[in-house]
Amino acid sequence: MRTLSWVYLGAIFTFILLPVVVLVIFSFQDGRLPVPPFKGATLKWYAKILGDRDLMDALVNSMMVAILSSLVAVTLGFLAASGLARAALPGSALMRGLLIAPMTVSYLIIGLGLLQMFNQVGIRPSLLATGIGHVVINLPLCFAILYAAIGEHQKSALQAARDLGAREWQVLWHVAAPMLAPSLAAAFFLSFTFSWDEFIIAFLLTRFDVTLPVEIWSMLRSGLSPATNAVGSLVFLVSVAVVVTLELTLFRKGSK
Length: 256
Hints:
It is a multi-pass membrane protein. By secondary structure, this protein is mainly α.
C-alpha cells in the first residue's frame, strides 16, 4: 500500500512538473524551434531576451503592477477582514459575500466591465487601469485568507489591546498585523503570482505600456521560439526564488 502511495505521489508530481521541465530544457535548444529532438545546449536565447528592450520594459511593468496592486489588495483585504471579524454586524454575512463574489466571475467579464466603466470616467487603457483590475480580482482572495486566519485568540488579543487604551490604528499595526504576518505574506504572494501571470485583464486594459504576459502573447503570434521558453524559465525561476525565500524566513518563523 505504501509503495502504491509513493507511485501515485510520483505520478502527480510528474504530471505537474513535466511541462515545466520540458519548457526549461528547450529554452536551451540550439535551433529555431523548441521541439524534439534536442539539438544541443546554448545560452543565445537568454542573451536575446535580456537584450530585448521591449521585453525588459514589459518585465518591469509586470513587476511594478504586481507589487503595487498586491499591496493595495492585501491592505484593503486586511482592513475588511479585521473590521468584519471584530463584531457581528447586521448584514455582515452579506458584506462578506459581496467581497468574495468577484472570485466567481470570469476575468473576461470583469475586464470588459472595467473597460466600459473606465471609458465612462475618462481613464484610458494603461498600467494604472490594469493595476485597478488586478486589485479587483485579488482583493476577494486576500480577504478570504485573512478573514479565515483570524481566530478567537486573535480576536481576544485585539479586544484586550482596545481595553488597554490602544487606538484602532495601533491595534491594527502593533497587534493584528504581527499576529497575521504569515497570512499577510501568503495573501501578498498569491496576489502577486496571479497578477504576474494574468493576461485577459492586462490585454484589455493596456495599450502601449504592456505587461509581460501580453508581450509574450505578441511574441507567440510570430510562431514558437526557444526565446519564449527562455522567458518562461526566467519567470519560473523568480517564482521559485520567492517561494524558497519566504519558506526559509517568514513562514518558518511563523511556524515556530
